[in-house]
Model the fold of this input.
Amino acid sequence: MSTYQMTAGHGGSPIQLLSPDGVRHPHERYDRFLADIDGRVDGVDATALLASVFEDMVVARRIDAEGTALQRQGQLGLWPPFVGQEAAQIGSAHAIGQEDFIFPSYREIGVAYARGAELSDLVRQWRGNAHSGWDPFALNMAPSQVVIGAQTLHAVGYAMGVLFDGAETAVVTYFGDGATSQGDVNESMVFAASFQAPVVFFCQNNQWAISEPVGVQAHVPIAHRAPGFGIPSVRIDGNDVLACLAATREALERARSGNGPSFIEAVTYRMGPHTTADDPTRYRDANELEDWKEKDPIARFDAYLTSIGVLDDGLRARVAEKADSVAAALREATIHMPDPEPDSLFEHVYSGPQPVLDRQREHFERYRAGLETGIGAGSNPSAEGGH
Amino acid sequence: MSAVTSDRTAAGSSPAATTTASGGTRQFRLPDLGEGLTESEIVSWRVKVGDVVELNQVIGEVETAKAVVELPSPFAGQVTALLAQPGQVVAVGAPIAEFEVATAAPAPSKSAPAPSAPSAPAPASSAKREPNLVGYGAMPEAAGRPVRKARSWATAGLAAPAPAAATSPAPAAATSPAPAAVTSPERPRSTPPVRKLAKDLGVDLAVVHGTGPHGLVTRDDVLATVGTADVGTTDVGTASTGKPEPAEAAPAGPRSENGRETRIPIQGVRKQTAAAMVASAFTAPHASEFLTVDVTPTMELLAKLKASKAFEAVRLTPMTLAAKAVLVALGRHPSLNARWDEKAQEIIQYHYVNLGFAAATPRGLLVPNVKDAQALDLRGLANAIAGLADSAREGRIAPGDLTGGTITITNIGVFGVDAGTPILNPGEAAILAMGQVRRTPWEHGGQVALREVLTLSLSFDHRLVDGEQASRFLADVGAVLADPGMIVTMV
Done:
């Protein structure tokens, strides 16, 4: 049964390719997955790759800050910050191919950005404007899942379909440490192993399940659980973008070559609240945040890129400008997002006409026709204060 | 994936550029900072009146039921008023600060429209929809329940009271309040069980006059409608002549899954017939009577007429003569040519006879009626019946020929049977079924002889017709058929 043992990071300390001071450490197992970004592949512009990863991380953090501000200003109903998790999200996202399919939780806004989502689509759901942000088949990324862990079942089902189709597509599902306590996640791992489905379980262990620290629900590292299901796992430093990139590439290669599922525990930290409706100062030690700031994923990558001469003040300024422009565009898209037509409620429920739904739509239209004013029509211009 | 030069956003715009497209005073209203909060307490202000702030600069702290949060400024500009003091609890949606926002620099106004490009909404919808602040919950002015339109149905119902049928010579069906209801978008007020009943009976609630509180349509109202000719829209006739039938869209046709059973969608004439029969059977208390008659003289008369020049090419049948007998008998017993108007609490006595007859057609049972049949001679009556029967079988009958009947004859004898208990055509007081004319050993002239014998079956609405009138009517019809010469004693 040795193949089911944890295959890496079992010594207690997660696998790290970049130490917090920005020093790149060679790694026998993972270096081969970083050949392009390390500049060891002819014809590949490693500098551009590194810069694009850095830019996405910085922009993602800026999006997160703007989303939080927009919520505080009444423009979004809720926002789930992911500040601190940029390496895990951007690093893994850069490993995933366009043809692969992603099943995220609600916090993978950085992944969606890196995947190419429209900015308005990143906030649409949080503005209460739609049930989901983006067209899943345009991004090959399912709508963000709010039901904790449910997306892992969808991912495994999709991956089983891929098997039946005989395709080389791989599937990645994101979830948090808290989700691993859910039945859904455990059931999905059973099926993934049984069917050897081409799926990557990417767990961002951000240390907190809302107000519950991970130690309460996992007495062993979360990655230790996967081998019990027959799924090889690794425990990596989730604030090390290169480790996240390499481990995800390895797991995807395993999936595409018919070797079944993998489990990655990316050890990171949720530097912000669970959502904007949460106040983490009520349950966690302020010192903990300070400790993790020392391991900041962007500062670490910045140090590394600076040390190898990729990042200078010019690029840093260009990236900052890009981040600001994205934030501005996100703000504009949010503030000027038109309300959906009431009738849109009925769209995308079923793939085709459905009599019960048609009847409901008809009743709803009749109800609307019986009202003096429309539903949700902005009849109060003075409330539009958020410019 | 995304390159450094990703063009997802408009190049050159800066956060400050997004603050506003034009200058002026702006208010910051307290958002719902948690999920579903109604109020928050101002903890402190980090700015004072007169300060110039940047977009997203923290201007104060607010404590909600869930958290203490920092408030980032939604504007770049000068603080002109702080409308709540620290320690004050403010309702979500109330203004807490005012800003004087500088007139936008050229660059911002240029960049403002650009970001709208990636946003999905169609121009058509954005033109008529206005942005709403989600974080504020319901807008203050829009608080409370949506305002319903005035109920146009109730007034329409009052404006068009039930027709005073007794004084109206025309069939009441034509003057129902239906038109008023058609213009009303408001669904008539009723209750789910009554709506179900109306649906089952094929009654359009829009044509039902509600007698309950505030025009509520009650069970009795629906049943009363069914019992009247107002059902015009739902009786056998109209509905089967091309009235839109939404329910027909779904089921395609008969289907048989295992060959042992076939499921046929209930639609069209079948559906309307069923609705009419249910409405009739459960509204009018039916009573039936039978009379068996030696109609040999009638058959002899028929043969004589057929051979005559006057009736050449006229389709004469036993039913033609039975129809004539009915018309003669109705003259003596008009209570069978009447209608129970539940709504008006009146009995409508017709002074004309629109004589209906059941016709089996390829589309199902149709009941056309001969208008003012009492005024027709036998030849006219025969031609009218033959013409309507042909139209009905060929599917080109006019809706008007199927509505407004006052009494009905059904000829079940053509199928080789003798008697039955017919169900009233809704709104009518009587229906007569003719059995087959059968050569039968029968008493004749004190001896048993083979005679042409026929059984008549009469069903009547016992609300307005008693056994006496029904019996006398039936006896008269039988007397005429037994001896057509009796007519001279009756008219």
Observations:
- The first strand of chain B starts at residue 24 and ends at 29.
- Chain B has a mean pLDDT of 77.
